[in-house]
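Incident log entry.

Two folding requests arrived from the same account within the same minute. Monitoring flagged them as a possible duplicate submission, but the sequences differ. Recording both here for audit purposes.

Request one:
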Amino acid sequence: MYTFGEKHPVLFEIVIVVIGFLIAGVITAFGSFAGLQIDLCTCIGRLLAAFILYVLYHRAFQGPKPKNHLLCVLPALLFAAWNIYYNVSSGIPLGGLNFFAEGLILAAAPAVFEEVIFRGIFLYNLKRKGHGDLSAMLISAAVFAAVHLTNIVGNDYLTVLIQVGYSLVVGMVFGAVYLKNGRLSQVILAHFLTDYINHIFTSSPASAGTLHLTVFVVLLAFEAVYALWLAGRKE
């Protein structure tokens, strides 16, 4: 398994993504048959898949690096700050206790599942293949973004294109941070907060205004430059 992943990191990544979703799908099917909530079953399935992959591929995960890299995660938290700004400025009210509680599992599942697969395992295999930090970060981010093309089902092309572009930059930043400090928990937390903010509001804004779009584009440009700088910076 390790040898195949190190020789063919992209192909191996596709395989484990499919396997991960299959595990989650099986759990979802059993839960649905048992009359449980589908979203909850899907989340449990993703968390279980992440745990299995983490155990099987445990040596891929880096140990913490020097403390001077702790602060490099802060710009990654701007994605969560953007979601707060966008929802609040659009007048979307916060949900009640159920929204907050449900949001925890809905945000935790993809955060753990995707970071274990795309940052933990994939970056390890790319580095073992001989890629430097910059190329490994870009390849992992590109594949991460490409996976979001599956959202084309039920969505218009423009929405999916925005999601793919956003996912590309998010993948770049999370990848660069993990490569520098070796703390998967930090990128999981940043990912979790980014998703959780959206889950605690009662609905999504109907449309984005000019100011929203401007701030969004500036944010993505800043984050992309930051990721390139961080991944390319020499120790």
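Request two (distinct sequence, not a duplicate):
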Amino acid sequence: MKSIEIITRRLLLKPLGSEYVQTVNDYALDYENTKYMCNLPNKNIEETINFLENAEAEWLKEKPEYYEFAILYRNQHIGAVSIHFENGIGELGWIVNKKYWGNGFAYEAAEALVTYFIDNMETTHFIAHCDTENAASYKVMEKLGMVRTGKWGGRRNKSASHDTFEYQYELIIPR
């Protein structure tokens, strides 16, 4: 596995893999933790294992299409932050175990990821999406300096029985 580790004031970001199956499962199966997510909650531990195996396989590629990082706080796995690439644009995502909400961990991890990919991969265009009711998530985007560039319907969160609306945010770094 490639060894990208990013250190912040309080956090360590390192490749997300199967060693975190139990702690990922803690938040990935929890409705409250995932109610605004398109691909969560997972139905069972097998879905979590499959996700982690795919993340590990991606890390082994010469040029990964995405990078999934574990967020560690005081050596405890508390969530994940990711960047997925399409046409040179990096799409950011994050999830933090609800036990750690309200401490700025999502922002700190996402900011570190943006900085790393600007400095080391020359990424200059970032986007992120969230359910319009997920105020915590869009506040992270705004704190990152991202600007809302879209709102549309048709978002179906995995645990939802109806479509909702989605925001898109963007950050473009001039070169």
